[in-house]
Design brief:
By secondary structure, the protein is of the alpha+beta class. The chain is built from 4 helices and 9 strands, in the order βββββαβββαβαα.
Length: 174
């Protein structure tokens, strides 16, 4: 499935109360290529108390706020085979879907593993004009859309020292 993605990325000042009341799921993702961004992702969704993961191959075009995105559903075996070919860091996080005004929602990512302590959010917009005019709620911090260090594809290539610097930068920004 091909679509145009228009999104902004933010650091989060404070995590909303009652976080577990929001829909959420675990994500594991790795990059076969950081440029162009070719990613495999396992998205664990809980249905009736049972984990029902989905597997997705994503190719993203160039751009920071607006870019083409192509997604293809994979079988578990295909995901496992592609995951072996991934380079760099495997990124794990829990994503919470938090409704906002204007029909928008925040995809709040609380990172785990080597990026533990990083908390970011993404908001997808219907068009560029809406994205440019948007004024986020107070709990959302600094916008990092144009800071490539906060893009998952770049994070997948980071060394331990780079990760420490990123986490320190996140703390300084909030």
């Amino acid at each position: 499935m091909k679509n145009m993605e228009i999104e902004k990325k933010y650091l989060i000042k404070s995590i909303p109360d009652n976080l577990d009341n929001y829909r959420h799921y675990d994500i594991e993702q790795a990059y076969i290529s950081a440029s162009p961004a070719i990613r495999v992702r396992k998205k664990g969704v809980y249905l009736d108390g049972t984990l029902s993961p989905t597997y997705i191959l994503t190719v993203k075009g160039k751009g920071l706020i607006k870019r083409e995105e192509f997604e293809l559903t994979l079988e578990k075996k295909e995901y496992d085979n592609l995951l072996k070919k991934a380079e760099g860091n495997v990124i794990t996080k829990c994503r919470y879907l938090i409704p906002l005004t204007e029909g928008l929602s925040l995809e709040l990512d609380i990172f785990q593993g080597i990026f533990k302590g990083l908390v970011m959010g993404e908001i997808e917009f219907p068009d560029e004009d809406s994205a440019k005019k948007y004024n986020p709620p107070a709990f959302i911090g600094r916008e990092v859309t144009f800071d490539e260090r906060f893009h998952n594809s770049v994070m997948s290539t980071m060394s331990e020292a780079d990760i420490s610097d990123l986490l320190a930068l996140m703390n300084e920004c909030n």
